[in-house]
Amino acid sequence: MTATADSPWVVAMAAPAAANAEVVGPKLARLAELQRAGFQVPTGYAVTVDAYLHFVRETRLDTAIAAELAAIGDGSDLDRLEAASARIRERFAAQPLPEAMRACFERAYETLCFEVREVDKPVAVRSSAVGEDAADHSFAGQYETFLGVSGLDAVDDSIRRAWSSLFSARAIGYRARSGLGAAAMPMAVGVLELVRARAAGVAFSVHPLTGQRDRVVVEGSWGYGEAVVGGLVVPDHAELDKDGFELLDYRVADKSVISVMDYRRGAVVERPMPPAFAAARVLDDDEIAAIARSAVAVEAHYGHPVDIEWVLQRGRREGDTIVLVQARPVTAAGADPTDPPQWDPVRYALRYGARMT
Fold first, then answer.
1. DSSP letter (8 states) at residue 224
2. pTM
């Protein structure tokens, strides 16, 4: 993707600048770095921090936002937080993109569609705020992602919605209580090819509950991964030996919810799992090993334990790699990485503790 190389507002994920967290935020920078290291990640581009800053200045939203935030106090009044958040987000929704910016975003999306040879290609619009993975603060899960977005208008709308998620009530309150200012944490947005998923999930290069470094844990379910990472479904659970990737344990869950693409709505949505899939094993041995190998390879790349979000694309053949859509540092019990914790072992224990061996 080269058509956007001359714009400060859009950077192709394959471009060197996409590995700069100050330009595209840490989430997208890690993906770009992994792509340059040879891992398979979705094709796409980043709408840069500069684009967000230009938008709020050009539309004078920055002044309105500052006034709203000044009135919330210490962030302890939940009703005030919700009201301020709603007003700010309504302003983002009502404010159209400046003409030059809209033209730039449209060129970028059309370039992506042509690159993958699909008109109105469905994409994932992913938030990536500067500072969201800082060592002393974690904004995990506070900003929004939109899956299955298709068409110029819908992509533009989702970019503004992702920007506005910087001002969700939860994020505003967290920053207020932590003494952080929104101005220091601007938002980049990724517009990435939506990889058509047969299955998706997460994997950990160490055991996330016990910290065992000789284990790799893989969790997955049918369809897209939002139901898994959002905690809406209990996924299948596999554990492997880290050295030879021998499968040590596989537990088939009773999976009640699936994330699927709704082409009429142009979005990935959750619905009840079809009965035939609910108690069926999601991953075969080759697929589990491929996911585990990717987790261990990402750990080796960074030099510390990680958790990854993966997609098993439709049409994948035995021996093929899997697609990575996110990678984060993880601190598990007994581990000693240098990065901050991003995984909640309490939530993990509540889900699996009663049946861990």
1. B
2. 0.86
As a whole number of angstroms, the distance between CA 194 and CA 263 comes to 13
Q: Which two tokens stand for residue 243?
A: 């050295």
User: Of 312, 318, 126, 309, nearest to 223 (Cα)?
Assistant: 312
Q: How far apart are CA 5 and CA 9, in angstroms?
A: 10
Helix, coil or strand: residue 241 = strand
pLDDT digits (tens, 9 = 90+) for 123-167: 999 999 987 654 444 445 578 999 999 999 999 999 999 999 999
Mean pLDDT of 93-117: 96
Closest CA to 147 of 228, 35, 255, 253: 228
Q: Work out the number of other CB atoms within 10 angstroms of the CB of residue 212.
A: 17
Which residues of the chain form beta strands (DSSP E)? Answer: 10-12, 44-47, 123-129, 145-149, 187-193, 197-204, 215-222, 236-241, 247-251, 257-262, 267-272, 306-313, 323-329
Dig out the tokens for 53 from the structure. 């800053």
- CA-CA distance, 52 to 261, in Å (whole number)? 28
Rounded Cα–Cα distance for residues 22 and 20 (Å): 5
Q: Indicate the pairing of strand 187-193 with strand 145-149.
A: unpaired
φ, ψ at 154 (rounded to 5°): -65, -40
